[in-house]
Amino acid sequence: MKLSSPMEIWEYLPGTNCEECGEKTCLAFASLLKERKKKLEQCPPIFKPEYAEKGKKLAELLAPEVSEVEIGVGARARKIGGEDIMHRHELTFFNRTALAYDVWDTMEEEELRERVRKITNWSKFYVGEFLRLDAVAIRSVSGDAKTFAGCVKDVAEETDLPLVLCSFDAKVMEEGLKEVSDRNPLIYAADETNWEEILEIVRTYNVPVTLFSSDLDMLNSLALTFSSAGVEDIVLDPGTYPTGEGLADTFSRFVRLRRAGIVDGNKGVAYPLIAVPMTAWMVHGEGAGNALEASYWEAIIADLFIIKYADIMILHSMEPHSLIPERTLVANVYTDPRRPVSVDPGLREIGNPADDSPLFVTTNFALTYYTVESDLSSNKIDSYLMVVDTDGIGVESAVAGGQLTAEAIKETLESYEVEKTVKHKAIVIPGLAARLSGETEDATGWNVLVGPRDSGRIPGWMDKNWPPETVS
Ligand code: SF4
User: Fold this and answer.
1) Peptide bond into 135 cis (omega under 30)
2) Rounded to whole angstroms, how far apart are CA atoms 57 and 66?
3) CATH number, domain at 354?
4) Does 286 score more than 70 pLDDT?
5) 426 is in which domain, residue-wise?
6) Residues in contact with ligand 1 (CB, 6 Å cut-off)
7) Residue 424 above 70 pLDDT?
8) In terms of domains, do 323 and 297 share one?
9) Do both 193 and 287 map to the same domain?
10) Is the whole-model pTM more than 0.70?
11) Same domain, yes or no, for 35 and 126?
12) Is the same domain home to 109 and 55?
């Protein structure tokens, strides 16, 4: 994106404040365009003849520096690329690195289907969301077109995840692609030896394509050839070499490509990048004792390129010691640094509370909320947990910063009509918010109890303090 502030964007908008976009002013809409929370198409007037020229220019200026490519279809389709910055602290990264796990066409059918189901269904709860995997990469190992096509068909029957079809043999690729061309798979890959045949396939089936070369001039040349032929959905693979100087050179190529695309504005290489950490298995092998080392190195390489700058990667090891750090790192690197991780405010039920169950207060900072929620539920304390909107800030800072106040607690009690849910008028505030106790009683008219500073101590606190006389 070439525009750095909402005011700069606003200058291209009609400026009529007509509210057709759902916002009260064009400036408010401009701010959401900057955040990518709205799309230009949501401003119908911009397409009127009198604004069309400015609108066209604005669309160009809003386009991300690195192009965005979508793979797959339906609910689990994934966008990759679309980034504007080199470093997360400059704004935020937008599209998480997509993790594709491999299967291969010499697997026994039942083993194949089982692994595809495992990739499709894997999930892990982490800070308010279920982390999942993103794609299945199908490798041609047999080199036989029919075998590959059969494997692709079996995989497609088992999963709705996006697919990456892997073969440098154009005939093998086309047979596989025929099975799933309506699934918008990413094909991997065209290189300097097969590019003409692969280009023909890409134009016939209109699917995204990976271009491969560890020679960046050659990669640039391939990208120009494909883009000149009208292919827009391009992914670049500058090669992933898993050891020694090869790994150092790989790192350097990823950084140079991303810098060329974002800092130097070289549109010829401003495409999403793919890394292949599973090349670690080519060095360390699957023999006895080597699998652990291979998966260890695969995880190290994956973590390196999650940070710099792979938009999608192909992986093999699904062992927890490899997969969990990779997936967790993706979640962390792609968290928006401008916003604390938060949950929605509201009134939550923990267990099976009744109208005389305790009512606890916490903030909507995700880490605080999930800690308190977990301490209550793991100790089987049937209760209500009232989550106050503190802009995603934790208890101590929110008290100091004025986000958690007696007034905020009162407003939350009223917004969620808590009085209709519990028959008592006793509320337990966190120990770290003890100083709000008197003000909260005055503001709400409720009996305020000060809970422990650490929610892990709630069971012991309950033994001594619940129910208070006003409830019993
Ligand atoms: S629809 Fe367009 S012109 Fe109307 S308020 Fe929104 S941004 Fe402004």
Assistant:
1) no
2) 18
3) 3.40.50.11600
4) no
5) 346-465
6) 13-14, 16-21, 23, 26, 29, 43, 45-46
7) yes
8) yes
9) yes
10) yes
11) no
12) no
